[in-house]
Structure formats: structure tokens, C-alpha cells
Design brief:
It contains 1 helix and 3 strands; from the N terminus they run αβββ. By secondary structure, it is of the alpha+beta class. The chain has a 3-stranded antiparallel sheet with strand order 1-2-3, covered by helices on one side.
Length: 147
């Protein structure tokens, strides 16, 4: 008597169910890792832009640029190309100059939720009410900028 070799329908359904459960466990974890990577990327790029702004300030009579795009045209060349916000593809990081005599700035990413925004308030501090829940930013606000 010959037996047929192969899988039964129930065995195949059980294997598919196990694979589906494993995918259900791993995909959310993978997405969380992507978000953590984007947060790290944004923090790193914001620190680089902050250093570039300070260099621009030193080389341009103690004035900050009106726009981050000015860093690409600065002499000496500071930033050859501006990075884009990982949470807002195709868009640059937000930038705001304000406070006493426009001596304070904040550069920000909209963050994972895509609603972050920051600005300098009347007390030369970063306005927390404008940040949204996910804003990532760097700033010199609250620091003494007098030479």
C-alpha cells in the first residue's frame, strides 16, 4: 500500500497562522526601530546645523542668517547642502530667529507626529506651547549671546 506524501490542508493552515502571528509581533517593533532611527538622525542633523549657524554668526559680523538656505551660500562654505527633515520628506528643517535683537534662534524638526513647531518667546526661551507633542529642536535661547 502506497501512502501519498504531502501536507494536509490543516497543516498548511497552521503554518500560515504561525507565520501571521510572528509577523504581527515583529512588524510593530520594526516600525518603532525606524522611528527611533529617524529621531537620532534628526537630533544629529540639528546639532550639525547648530554648529553651522554658530560658524555663520562668527564669520558674518555677529548676525544669524535670515534663512537656513543662506548657509549654502556662505563664505567660507559651511554647509554644501541642507539636510531634509526625516519626518517631513522633501522639506527642510524649520528655523526661527527672534528674541532680543534677533540674537536667539531655534531649529526644529516636526517630529514623529508631524505637528511640531517652535519659536522664541518674549523671555528669550523656546516657547513650549508651540512645540506640539513631538517637536525635536536645538536652540541658543536662554544663553548669553553677548560677545
Amino acid at each position: 500500500m502506497k501512502m501519498k506524501r504531502g501536507f494536509t490542508l490543516i497543516e498548511i493552515l497552521i503554518v500560515i497562522a504561525v507565520i501571521a502571528i510572528l509577523l504581527g509581533i515583529t512588524l510593530p517593533r520594526f516600525r518603532g526601530m525606524q522611528e527611533e532611527g529617524s529621531i537620532s538622525q534628526a537630533k544629529s542633523e540639528l546639532k550639525t546645523l547648530q554648529t553651522a549657524l554658530e560658524s555663520y554668526y562668527i564669520h558674518n559680523d555677529n548676525e544669524y542668517p535670515d534663512d537656513l538656505d543662506d548657509l549654502e551660500d556662505a563664505e567660507p562654505l559651511i554647509v554644501p547642502e541642507l539636510p531634509t527633515d526625516p519626518f517631513n520628506p522633501g522639506e527642510d528643517y524649520g528655523y526661527y530667529v527672534g528674541g532680543t535683537n534677533d540674537q536667539y534662534y531655534v531649529i526644529y524638526s516636526v517630529g514623529p507626529e508631524g505637528d511640531g513647531e517652535a519659536e522664541i518667546d518674549d523671555d528669550n526661551e523656546v516657547d513650549e506651547t508651540e512645540n506640539g507633542d513631538s517637536c525635536i529642536y536645538v536652540s541658543n535661547a536662554g544663553q548669553d549671546t553677548t560677545p
